[in-house]
Amino acid sequence: MFKTNEYFDGKVKSIAFETSEGPATVGVMAKGEYVFGTSTVEYMTVTSGKMMIQQPDETEWKTYKEFETFIVAKDVKFKVKVEGDTSYRCLYK
Questions:
Q1: For labelling alongside 6, which of 20, 32, 34, 86 has CA 20 to 30 A away?
Q2: Which pLDDT score is estimated for 68?
Q3: What is the pLDDT of residues 39-77, one digit of tens each?
Q4: Domains of the chain and any CATH numbers
Q5: Beta carbons of 23 and 92 less than 8 angstroms apart
Q6: Farthest CA pair distance, the chain
Q7: How many CB atoms lie within 10 A of CB 73?
Q8: In the prediction, which pLDDT does 1 show?
Q9: Where are the beta strands (DSSP E) in the chain?
Q10: How far apart are CA 66 and CA 87, in angstroms?
């Protein structure tokens, strides 16, 4: 069955499920800045809105729009900024 997750006082919510590609989540983020940690490699695809991402050991932010994907390494922290409600899908490898 599905597992729901809530982070940052309810500003980030996700639902976990299994896909043919492996475990995944779909979720939404309210306007704000967040720091996430990874325990696996994550393939994140923006499905609505846009995300500004700062990867570990980088100083510049990169913007990802609808249907663009970025990859985050295992066992790192990365920063996310969203200017409005944004949705995503994350595959865990």
A1: 20
A2: 98
A3: 999 999 999 999 999 999 999 999 999 999 999 999 999
A4: 3-92 (2.60.120.10)
A5: yes
A6: 39
A7: 13
A8: 74
A9: 3-7, 12-19, 22-29, 32-37, 42-48, 50-54, 62-65, 69-72, 77-82, 86-92
A10: 9
Q: What is the CA radius of gyration of the chain?
A: 12
Q: Is 42 exposed, middle or buried (0-12, 13-18, 19+ CB in 10 A)?
A: buried
Residue bearing tokens 């499905």: 47
- C-alpha 20/C-alpha 86 separation (Å) is 25
pLDDT band at 32 (very low <50, low <70, confident <90, very high): very high
- Tell me the C-alpha distance between 90 and 66, whole Å: 13
